[in-house]
Amino acid sequence: MFQNVKSTLSGYAKYRGEGHIAFVLHRIAGLATVIFLGLHIIITSLVFFAPSWYDKAIQIFRNPLVMIAEIIMAFFVVYHGVNGLRIAYLDLFRPDLWTTAPTRKATRGVFAVAILLWLPALIIMGHSLLVHGLGLLGGE
Q1: Is the separation of the CB atoms in 46 and 37 below 8 Å?
Q2: How far is CA 119 from CA 5, 37, 77, in A?
Q3: pLDDT (average), residues 90-94
Q4: Which of 19, 30, 18 has the alpha carbon at shortest distance from 79?
Q5: What CA–CA distances, in Å, run from 46 to 54, 68, 70?
Q6: DSSP 3-state assignment of 133?
Q7: What CA–CA distance (Å, rounded) separates 123 from 104?
Q8: Cα gap 59→105, rounded to integer Å
Q9: 94-110 pLDDT, tens per residue?
Q10: Dihedral, 95, 99, 105, 106 alpha carbons, nearest 10
Q11: What's CA 131's distance to the chain center, in Å?
């Protein structure tokens, strides 16, 4: 079993161009999204089952490092969704575009769209980081 994991990870580590970066980032973003959703469900359920633990969890989430991780997590969610739409479109409607040049162009487009869709979240979450996490801009 360990040999399979080692083989898989070494295969991911070998650089094979932009498409490979998109593939690896899609996997990382998917894993991060699953972890985030699991934690979100558990922590939100604390409101009902253990309100004092929920209050402690909220204090942890006001830590600047955790807030930065949440901003990055927001990008992962957006990127995973946009890249998933690209993959679905190519698989369902345009399998002929699974070649190097169109894939490279589409990968760049996915990054651009993901960043544009993520910018509002970055601004809102970044403001919250400055105010609540770092106490700047008249924050707490």
Answers
A1: no
A2: 36, 21, 13
A3: 89
A4: 30
A5: 5, 23, 19
A6: helix
A7: 29
A8: 43
A9: 888 888 788 888 889 99
A10: 30
A11: 23
Amino acid at 70: E
Domains and CATH numbers, the chain: 18-133 (1.20.1300.10)
Amino acid at 79: Y
Residue type, 3: Q
* Closest by Cα among 122, 118, 140 to 67: 122
Token pair listed for 59? 């204090």
Structure token pair of residue 2: 């360990």
Concatenating the DSSP letter of every residue in 89-118 gives: HHHHT-GGG-SHHHHHHHHHHHHHHHHHHH
3-state SS record for 25-75: HHHHHHHHHHHHHHHHHHHHHHHHHCHHHHHHHHHHHCCHHHHHHHHHHHH
Structure-token pair, residue 66: 């955790």
pTM for this structure? 0.80
Q: Cα–chain-centroid distance for residue 97? A: 26
Read off the amino acid at residue 93. Answer: F
Amino acid at 43: I
